[in-house]
Each structure stands twice: as structure tokens, then as C-alpha cells.
Design brief:
This protein has four helices and four strands, in the order ααββββαα. The chain has a four-stranded antiparallel sheet. The protein is 42% helix and 26% strand. The chain is an alpha+beta fold and 133 residues long. The chain is elongated, with a radius of gyration of 23 Å.
Length: 133
Amino acid sequence: MTERPTHRQIRRPWLSGRLLDRSGDPISQNVWTDLTVDPDYKTVARSRVGRYHVVTVWRGLDPHVFETRVFTSGPEPFCLRQESYATEVEARAGHARYLSLARMAMFWRTAGGFVVIAAVLVALAAMCSAIAG
């Protein structure tokens, strides 16, 4: 029986660009490989708003060192949005922006949407009363 290679022994030919740590300093492929399997190092921020998951991670691939993705939950999760960043500061700002958009989407899907529909129905009822009366 042959032994499976460890994550450090696997060569990744697609890693032809520079590899960077979270502070933007160059690192070796072995260090990058070790860091990619460390969820505490890799995860910058993770949030959930209703059915939306906003996840920001370190990828370490120049120039897309960080990435934010917005997923929907459910039986078949779907990536709605994806954006890359060069620095952790930009990534945290992008995460906050997408978190705000997810909150607005949930607002309009729940109470906010009903408020608008109720206002339209009240206006229509008033118009009908004015026409009939």
C-alpha cells in the first residue's frame, strides 16, 4: 500500500505568482501550504444574516490576497457575489460592505418589503375610495 503525500509534499504548478502572508510579505510555497490549512489564520471574518453567509478569507495569491464571498444557505448553497482585495484592511471593509448589503436584502425580504406593499395597498384603497365616493 502506498502512502498518501502530505499537504506539504503536493506540488501545485498553478502557483506561479507571488505568495504573500496576511501582512503582504512574500512567503515560500511550503509556508503558504501550511497556512492554507489553518482555519484561524485563513479566516478573516465570517458572518450570517438570515439566509446570507458573508465569508472573507486570506488566499495569499498576489494580487488577490484576500477574498469575500456572499453565499445563500439552503439545500444548494449558491455564491451570489465574489470580490478580491490586495490588503486585509480592504478585505475587512469589503466584508462590512457586503454584510450591510445582506442586512438590507433581509430587511426588504421581511418587514421592509411588507411595509412598502402595505403603503401601496393603502394608497390604492384611498384612490378607490376617492373615485367611488
